[in-house]
Every structure is written in structure tokens, then in C-alpha cells.
Amino acid sequence: MAFDRRLFNVVLLGLAFMLIFTAFQTMGNIQKTIIESIKQDNEKKNDTSFQGDGYVSLSIIYAVMSILNWAAPSVISVIGPNFAMLFGGITYVLFIMSFLIPRTWLLYLASVIIGTGAAVIWTGQGNYLTLNSTQATVSRNSGIFWAMLQLSMFIGNLFVYFKFKGLDSIDVDTRNMVIWTLSGIGIAGLVVMVLLPRPKKTSQIDIPDEVQQTPLEALKGAVKLFFTKDMLLLSITFFYTGIELGFFSGVYSSCIGFTQKFSNPKELVGLSGILIGLGEVLGGAAFGILGSKTIKWGRDPIVIAGFIVHVISFFLIFLNLPNNSPFSDTTDGAIITSSPELAIFCSFLLGFGDSCFNTQIYSILGGVYSNNSASAFAIFKFTQSVAAAICFGYSTGLILYGQLGILLVLAICGTASFVMVEWKVKKEALAKSVHDNASSEGSEKAAF
Fold it and tell me: Averaging pLDDT over each range in 104-108, 251-255, 383-387, 409-413, which range is the top one?
């Protein structure tokens, strides 16, 4: 078998992102817990200088990312995807290392910096993947990259699980060990990025004319597309995925870690991240990599399945965790006796349901908007990032039941809007098929 250079590049790309996001996603998962432990240590010393908030930090990250997402393509056109991804990766490592020096101003400055890097690294990733793909391999390459990226949920959170095992609070030595280890994993990802071969400037993919647009023309086109009926409907779905992204990636694991009714809540934080990752990987394998087989059912049944899974998880979380668990350690009881097994099972449901929504969003954008994909995906990432920023913003003061209520309402609206667009797409495809068959039969009769 001949050596496939492009496939090798995609695997290297996946490895680099797996390492960097092993570091960052793990840090995001435990960030609120880490910050609260820093405050508890400072209170013992009568030191109130550090008043940083994990939810505010994450809100800043996604807000900056959403704004700068529109400018990222022009940056890529100037410096190329390799340098763009390397720059973005460096900001992720710097953000993690900022926790070694707990200062309020530094936490929020690092949040702004990583928000800038996040916009650039993801645009660079998409460009690099495209340049190493053909029409025949783009789905395969996207599936390989996505699966490798989701594996990042396992490695870091497994490490955190064992480091936090048996601890009632996270002492400074444990914190610093975790931060240095995650930073080292992130640096290893940067090394892989440095080794990434430069992609060729041409690809066998049919690149639409939109990539020839100036940044201003692309922005105008995206705004115009955003205000079409179908995209406005899909944006409701995008918004929901952003809210639930914020909830499962930063809020839910913190709720588990703050619930003192569990015997070892801190070690459950890492285990929660692992189960979220397991749900993401299994869902991605079923509906992403095996999409050519599942697509025969259509996209709407998979999104509806994700909706059902999420509603079940919201109800179980409502029963199982205290209302004030998003904020700090609490001994309050829940509606039922809090069960760690049930809490971890809900982590899996959150990850699996998220993969149902996201794989089908990528499918509908790549299929329906293939001639305007850059604008479509820019709208998706922008709307999702804004929603995640809003989620982390209100999480600083909104009780758990309130957050679950918002999630439920948006899940209903987001699912309904997606199904409406999908049914319209199916109807148009059926009408086109009937028209093509009729034209073919007419041509045959004329020829006869």
C-alpha cells in the first residue's frame, strides 16, 4: 500500500489537537473547582486579593472568540494555517500556566488572550484539513480528526481523577502538579504542531468561489446568509448547542465537585469529564464516522434522539443535585438522595446527546450550504460561542434549576427548528428527484 502523505498529515493534526485540548478541556472542566480551592487557601491566610471567577473567565474566552471569529480567515490568508495554529496553541498553554500565579487581573487577561487564539486555531485547523483532503477523503479525514480530538476528554480527566482521589479540598501542591502536567501535555502538542508539514496551496477539493472573496465581501455574504429563513431557524439550534456546551464543559462537573453529599466529590470531577468524553466519542463514531450508513435514516431522527437523551439527563440532574451546587461547596440535599453513579451517568448522557446535535449540524451545513460553507460555519461558530459566553455569564449567579429550565426550553426550540429545516430539505430533494425522473422519462420517449 502506498504511503498516504495527506492522511499522515491529518493524523498528525489530530495528535496535536488531542494533546493541546487534553490540557485545555481538562483545565476548563476543573477550573471552577481549582479557583474555589485557591480562594479557600487564601481565606485561611486572611488574603482576599484573588477574586477571580471560573465562569466569568470562560465567558470572556467565548465572547472574545465569537467576535474575532469573523476576522480569523483574513489572518489565515496572511500567515497560513501552520503559524495560525501554533499561535493559537501557545495561547492555550499560557492560559493554563497563568493558574500558577493566581491573580484576578492575570486570569481575565489570559482569558482574553486565549479567546484570540481560539478563533485563529480553529480556522487554521479547518483550512489545514481541507488542504489535505479530497472530495473522496474529506468525510473520512474529518471523522478521524474529530475522534482523536474527543479522546482528549479521557487522558487529562483520568489523570485528574487519580490526583483528586480521596481529597476533600485541592491543596496547593496538588494544584500545581496538575497545572504543570497539563502545561507539559500542551507543550507536547505545540511540538507536534511545529512538525506539521506545510500543506500545498492547492487541493483536489472543489473549492467554492467564496474563498476568493475579500474579508469584507465574505462578511457581507455571511450577514446576508444569516438573515435567510432557514439559517435563522438553524441559529436557534446553534444557540442551544452553545448553551449546553457551556453547561457540560464548565458548569456540570463543578456542580458534582461542590456536592458534599457525595463521599469523594472532587475525584468525581475528573470521572465526569471522562464519561462526557465517552459519550462524545461513541456518538461521534455512530453518527459521524459511520455517517454514510446512518444518513439513510435522515438527520432529524438523530437530533430528536439527542433531544430525548438531553431531556432525560436534565430531569435526572434536577432530581440528583442541590440547587446551589454551581457556586461552591454545599451540604444541601437534593430532591432525592444524591447518587454519584447517577451523576456520572448523566455526564455520559450529556456527551452523547451533544454529539447527536453537533454531527448533524456539520452534516446539514456541509450538505445544504456546500457552496457557501465558510459563511455557514462562521455563523455556526459565532452563534455557538456567543451562547457559551452567555451561559458562563449567567452561571455566576443563576441557580441550577434555573439553568436546567433554560436548557429545556432551548432544547425544545432548537430541535423543532432543526427538524423544520431538515423536512424542508427532504421535501426539496424529493421534488428534485421526481422532476429529474420525469425529465429522464420524457427524454427517453422523445428519443424513441
Answer: 409-413
Residue-wise pLDDT for 173-222, tens only, equals 888 888 999 999 999 999 999 999 887 654 444 444 444 455 566 566 67
pTM: 0.79
Residue located via cell numbers 459511520? 290
Only one residue has cell 492575570, namely: 106
Length of the chain: 448
Residues 324, 54, 190, 124: is their CA dihedral positive or negative? positive
Say whether 100 sits in a helix, a strand or coil: helix
Burial of 246 (0-12, 13-18, 19+ CB in 10 A): buried
183 is written with which cell numbers? Answer: 502545561
Backbone angles phi, psi at 189, to 5 degrees: -65, -35
Residue with cell 430533494: 429
305 touches 296 (CB < 8 A): no
Which of 381, 353, 377, 378 minimizes the C-alpha distance to 363? 377
Q: What is the pLDDT of residues 74-132, one digit of tens each?
A: 777 778 888 989 999 999 999 999 988 888 899 999 999 999 998 888 878 877 877 78
Cα–Cα–Cα angle for 161, 164, 169, nearest 5°? 150
Q: For 187-221, give one letter per residue: b (16+ CB within 10 A) or e.
A: bbbbebbeebeebeeebeeeeeebeebeeeebbeb
Residue 122 CA to its chain's centroid (Å): 11
Compute how many other C-beta atoms are within 10 angstroms of the C-beta atom of residue 131.
Answer: 20
CB-count burial class (<10 Å; 0-12, 13-18, 19+) for 445:
exposed
Measured CA to CA in angstroms, residue 145 lies from 81, 138, 248, 289, 358 at distances of 16, 10, 21, 10, 14
Euclidean distance between CA atoms 64 and 112, whole angstroms? 6
Exposed, middle or buried by CB within 10 Å (0-12, 13-18, 19+), for 52? buried
Taking the C-alpha atoms of residue 72 and residue 118, their distance in angstroms, rounded to an integer, is: 10
Distance CA 110, CA 161 (A): 26
Torsion, CA 396, CA 400, CA 404, CA 407, rounded to 10: 10
Label residue 226 exposed, middle or buried (CB < 10 Å: 0-12, 13-18, 19+): middle
Pull the grid cell for residue 170.
485541592
The DSSP letter of residue 205 is S
User: Is 374 within 8 Å of 37 (Cβ atoms)?
Assistant: no
Cell output for 446: 422523445
